[in-house]
Amino acid sequence: MSKKPIYLSSIHQGGAESKYIQAALNSNSLSTGGINVSEFEKAVEHYIGQGNFVAALSSGTAAIHLGLILLGVKKGDEVICQSLTFSASANPIVYQGATPIFVDSESETWNICPITLEEAIMDRILKGSKPKAIIAVHLYGMPYKVDAVHAVATKYGIPILEDSAEALGSTYKNTACGTFGDIGVYSFNGNKIITTSGGGALVVKDQKVKQKAIFYATQAKEPTLYYQHNEIGYNYRMPNICAAVGQAQMEVLDEHIKLRKANHLFYELLFKDINCVGVHKALNEDSTSNYWLTTIIIDPKNSEGFNSENLRMALQDDSVEARPIWKPMHLQPIFEKSPYYGNNAAEELFNNGLCLPSSSNLTDEDKDRIRKVVLKYFKKTVEK
Ligand SMILES: *Cc1c(COP(=O)(O)O)cnc(C)c1O
After folding, report:
1. Active site (catalytic) residues
2. Quick one: pLDDT at residue 217?
3. Is the CB of 184 within 6 Å of ligand 1?
4. What per-residue confidence (pLDDT) applies to 381?
5. Residue 304 binned pLDDT confidence (cut-offs 50, 70, 90)
6. Span 257-270, average pLDDT
7. Which residue from 75, 84, 161, 220 could staple onto 97, CB 3.0 to 4.6 Å apart?
8. 165 CB less than 6 Å from ligand 1?
């Protein structure tokens, strides 16, 4: 008999979803926008703190696309993007007819390297094109080096689009990730820390910018009785019924973070005596990760023949889903021609790293199964 699959990151309902959905049904609010959307936006605004405005959209990808539009990215522009990320960070650059310039990671947070970032900016300026924006990503929920990265951006006067799709609830110096960039982005896709079943949000600093985002997200209709369009619009607003799910999920966000952190602790203990494995963790007390996914790296110089792909297959044999670290964008066929700056740090993470099951509803039995496979793979005794 095949075992119950254990997924990387699965849906975890909070319990109040049906209550909010029923309220939306009762008021017949089944369109985009609506009361649940504004209540959901308020909940996220309250959660991330003062001075930030949230526009709920149909996806994180839509949020990145609108973010680039709000930053004025146009055809022919160059946009710097962290190479080690999910493709949705980079695709909207191409939607705008702009060119992605990929920048490598540093090995501490696995996110955009501030030194390489500056080298890339200087070289692009030398080549005659100053980048229009920088997309920095808190990959797996781990904050990037906010101060260092933003210092470079400020020095050259380039805005940052902060892809916080995986990092709702992570903080840097006690401030919410998603609120550092000129524009921030969250995703509420089904695999993220909370879900609206599909959705995203833009975080902006100004009520007027929020209104502008909503304007573009609802077909750029001018305020006339007849349909008047002076700009190209999009259908990117969050459906109200999705926001209802989001309201319920916001109530359990902190609990989900606690559970993901407990998963991380479980893996730290599990790999404590396995010398070739490093569990990726926050650099110092400036950063807290929501530990959306716990990731590990197997040191190739000290691996004693173990490797991430064989560990992944051993887990798969037990119906446990693990996944390689996201494949860097500069190695993707679609971005083959895009310039890349770096020293293959991201490539090394891709070759030697693994994402482990990290759902907030991972059970003790699930952990026990994972533990047994891991200890067996590394030839450690499985004590009871
Ligand atoms: C999930 C994700 C996105 C895209 O969000 P969707 O809501 O799935 O469109 C963008 N960037 C990163 C880093 C992501 O993980």
Report:
1. 192
2. 98
3. no
4. 74
5. confident
6. 98
7. 75
8. yes
Superfamily of the domain at 254-383:
Aspartate Aminotransferase, domain 1 (3.90.1150.10)
What CATH number should be reported for the domain whose range is 17-252?
A: 3.40.640.10
SS (H, E, C) the chain: CCCCCECCCCCCCCCCHHHHHHHHHHCCCCCECCHHHHHHHHHHHHHHCCCCEEEEECCHHHHHHHHHHHCCCCCCCEEEEECCCCHHHCHHHHHCCCEEEEECECCCCCCECHHHHHHHHHHHHHCCCCCCEEEEECHHHCCCCHHHHHHHHHHHCCCEEEECCCCCCCEECCEECCCCCCEEEEECCCCCCCCCCCCEEEEECCHHHHHHHHHHHECCCCCCCCCCCCCCCCECECEHHHHHHHHHHHCCHHHHHHHHHHHHHHHHHHCCCCCCEEECCCCCCCEECCCCCEEEEECHHHCCCCCHHHHHHHHHHCCECCEECCCCHHHCHHHCCCCEECCCHHHHHHHHEEEECCCCCCCHHHHHHHHHHHHHHCCCCCCC
CA of 63 to the centre of ligand 1 (A): 9
Q: How far is the CA of 131 from the centre of ligand 1 (A)?
A: 22
Give me the helix-helix angle, 60-70 and 207-217, nearest 10°.
120
Tell me the Ramachandran region of residue 285: left when phi exceeds 0, alpha when psi lies from -120 to 50, beta otherwise.
alpha
Please give the average per-residue pLDDT across 251-276, as a whole number. 97
- Decide whether any atom of ligand 1 lies within 6 Å of the 293 Cβ: no
pLDDT higher at 155 or 28: 155
Confidence band for 216, pLDDT divided at 50, 70 and 90:
very high
pLDDT classification of 382: cutoffs 50, 70, 90: low
Structure tokens at 370: 């994972």
Per-residue pLDDT averaged across 142-161, rounded? 98
Please give the mean pLDDT across all residues of the chain: 96
pLDDT at 383 over 70: no
Q: What is the pLDDT of residues 327-361, one digit of tens each?
A: 999 999 999 999 999 999 999 999 999 999 999 99
Q: For residue 333, report the distance from its CA to the centre of ligand 1, in Å.
A: 20
- The pLDDT of residue 203: 98
> Which atom of ligand 1 lies closest to the CA of 187?
7
